Amino acid sequence: MIFNGTNQASQASQALEVIINNGFWPDIDPNQFIEEERVFKVTPPRIRHALRAATADINRQLADYQHAHQQAGRMACDAIPPEPWQTPGDIQLLYMRAVYAQAQADLLERYRDASATGEGDERGEAKDLAADDYRADARWAIAELTGRNHTTVELI
Predict the structure, then answer these.
(1) 6: Cβ–Cβ under 8 A, 6 or more apart, which residues?
(2) Separation in Å, CA 152 to CA 2, 20, 63, 109
(3) Residue 7 half-sphere exposure, CB side, CA atoms within 13 Å?
(4) pTM (two decimals)
(5) Which of 12, 69, 119, 140 is 20 to 30 A off residue 92, Cα-Cα?
(6) What average pLDDT does this structure show over 68-89?
């Protein structure tokens, strides 16, 4: 489904257009997403849709953060000075990680097997767990980007 590279050659011949972001955050290159996240055997329109929805969601979650930096005169994320524990480029890296993880979660949820067999149900449950892990990755990337502590709560 998403994680193997058997369809690499045909995917490479279908280069996708860059998704223009809001000017503050970096643009999203679907081709880079495909390569870095090893997303093959997913149609180009589905990839674009998942990335656009993920970008909108992550931008909404970071709206206050973005606004605060713009009020301070930083009109793009690359103008944000890194925190002492960060290295140059970490802000963009964490933003892309959040977008990619959110897109991966969406793709996993929407590409569940339609099989009614027990094996199909087990694969669907595994994909749901993987989607949850990707959503957690997105939340952690946002927390790291904004300097918030990571909090893990578990019901006992």
Answers:
(1) 40, 41
(2) 28, 34, 23, 23
(3) 14
(4) 0.81
(5) 12
(6) 95
- Can you read off the two tokens belonging to residue 130? 């993987």
Assigned token pair, 93? 């890296």
Q: Looking up tokens 């930096």, which residue turns up?
A: 69
Cα distance between the two ends of the chain: 34
**Residue bearing tokens 């103008």:** 79
Extract the tokens encoding 110. Answer: 């929407």
Question: What is the identity of the amino acid at 34?
Answer: I
What's the confidence (pLDDT) of residue 155? 73
Residue 116: band (very low, low, confident or very high) from pLDDT cuts 50, 70, 90: very low
Give dist(CA 44, CA 86) in Å, integer. 34
The pLDDT tens digits of the residues spanning 121-136 come to 445 455 566 899 999 9
Tokens, residue 134: 């990707």
